[in-house]
Design a protein that fits this description.
Length: about 375
C-alpha cells in the first residue's frame, strides 16, 4: 500500500512539474496588416543573430536587435503574398525558427515558412472552390536503389468523371528540395484548383517526383542522367498504369524550376516522342545544350512542328538570368520557336508560382494557346 501511495505522489509531482513548464509564448513570425513581418527568437547568450529570407539577395542577411529579455527581433517587408522561406543565423549557425511549427524540409537541413495572405486570395492561395487531391505514391526504385515518393495531383472531377482520361504535367523541383516542394511552397495544387474554377486551364494530372536521384551528400555529377532514367523508366510507366492518363505525346508536358528546369530541358528535349511541351523556370542550363541538341537546333522546322510550347522564364535579379537569356537567344538564333519571359524577381517561389500561373493555361491546348 505504501508503494502504491509513493508511486501516486511521485506521478502527481511529475505532472505538476510538467504543467508548470510553460511553452515559449514568443510569437514568430508575426504577420502585420500591411504585409510586413516581425521575426523573433529568444537567445540571451547569442552574440549575433541574423535572418536570411528567400526574398533577399544570395549571401546577404538582416541583423536582428536584442532586447533586455534576450529576445532578438526585426521587422521586414512588406513581403510578397504567399509563402516565403527563411531561417535564422545564430552566431553563424543557420537554423529554423524554433517557435514556428511550419517547417520547410529539404534534402539537407531545414528552414521555416512564413505566409502573407492576399486580399482577395491570390491564385496560389486556398479559395472556396472545388479542390483536387494530392496523393503520395511510394515505390521501390531499381534505378536509384531506394524507396522514394512522388506526389500526384488529380483535378476535382477526377473521381466523378470515371470515363475521362487526363493529360499529364510532370512538374520538377529545384536543388536541395523534396518531392513536396511544389505543394508545400509552390502551392501547385491550389493554382490548378483556382485556374480550373475560373476555366483558365485544362483539367490535368500533375506528377511531382523527387529530383535527387543520387545521395545528396555525394557527387551530383550524374544526378541528371540517373533522374532521367528514373522518370522515363519507372515514374511514367507507374503513372500510366495507375491513373487515367490520356495517351500520346501531345498529352504530356514537363516543366521545372532551377535544377528541375535543367532536368525539364534535358528530359523533355531528349524525348520529344514523349513530350510536346517543355518549360524551364530560372533554370540551371545544361552546359552541353548546343551539342546535345544539335539536331534540334539544326532542324528548327521539325523541332517547331513537334513542340507545342517551349517556355523559359527568369527574374532579372536572379543569378541565373544571363544564362537563361543566352539560352533563349540561342534557340531564337536557330529559328526554334521559344517564349522567353523575363520578369522582376529573385530565385524563389514568389517568381515560380507566377510562372506556373502563366504556363498552366497554355498546356494541352491546340497550338499551345
Amino acid at each position: 500500500m505504501k508503494s502504491v501511495l509513493l508511486l501516486f505522489l511521485l506521478s502527481a509531482t511529475l505532472a505538476v512539474g510538467q504543467t508548470n513548464r510553460l511553452p515559449d509564448t514568443l510569437v514568430s513570425p508575426q504577420v502585420l496588416a500591411d504585409g510586413r513581418v516581425t521575426f523573433r527568437i529568444r537567445a540571451p547568450q547569442a552574440k549575433e543573430v541574423g535572418l536570411f529570407g528567400d526574398w533577399m539577395a544570395a549571401g546577404t542577411r538582416e541583423l536582428l536587435t536584442k532586447d533586455d529579455q534576450g529576445v532578438w527581433s526585426t521587422t521586414l517587408g512588406p513581403l510578397d503574398h504567399g509563402i516565403s522561406i527563411y531561417n535564422f543565423i545564430l552566431d553563424g549557425l543557420p537554423m529554423a525558427d524554433p517557435v514556428n511549427p511550419r517547417i520547410k524540409l529539404r534534402a539537407r537541413t531545414s528552414a521555416s515558412f512564413v505566409e502573407v495572405p492576399g486580399f482577395p486570395p491570390e491564385l496560389w492561395e486556398a479559395r472556396d472552390v472545388p479542390h483536387g487531391t494530392v496523393e503520395v505514391n511510394w515505390a521501390k526504385s531499381a534505378v536509384t536503389g531506394d524507396t522514394r515518393a512522388y506526389y500526384v495531383y488529380t483535378p476535382p472531377d477526377y473521381s466523378r468523371q470515371t470515363a475521362a482520361r487526363y493529360p499529364v504535367l510532370y512538374l520538377l523541383h529545384g536543388n536541395l528540395d523534396t518531392a513536396a516542394g511544389w505543394t508545400d511552397a509552390g502551392r501547385a495544387h491550389f493554382i490548378l484548383d483556382n485556374l480550373l474554377a475560373e476555366k483558365q486551364a485544362v483539367p490535368m494530372i500533375i506528377v511531382m517526383p523527387w529530383g535527387h536521384a543520387v545521395p545528396y551528400d555525394g557527387p551530383q555529377t550524374n544526378n541528371t542522367a540517373v533522374f532521367e532514367r528514373y522518370v522515363i523508366e519507372e515514374v511514367m510507366p507507374q503513372v500510366d498504369a495507375k491513373y487515367r492518363v490520356a495517351p500520346g505525346r501531345e498529352n504530356r508536358a514537363i516543366v521545372g524550376l532551377s535544377m528541375g528546369g535543367g532536368h525539364a530541358l534535358q528530359i523533355g528535349l531528349s524525348h520529344l516522342d514523349r513530350f510536346s511541351a517543355v518549360g524551364a523556370f530560372s533554370s540551371a542550363i545544361p552546359s552541353n545544350l548546343a551539342t546535345r541538341f544539335k539536331s534540334l537546333l539544326d532542324q528548327p522546322e521539325e523541332t517547331n512542328a513537334r513542340l507545342k510550347l517551349l517556355w523559359i522564364g527568369c527574374g532579372r535579379q536572379d543569378p541565373a538570368f544571363v544564362r537563361n537569356e543566352e539560352l533563349a537567344g540561342l534557340l531564337k538564333d536557330h529559328g526554334v520557336r521559344v517564349t522567353f519571359n523575363p520578369t522582376e524577381g529573385r530565385h524563389n517561389f514568389a517568381v515560380w508560382r507566377r510562372y506556373l500561373v502563366a504556363v498552366a493555361p497554355l498546356l494541352f491546348r491546340e497550338g499551345g494557346k
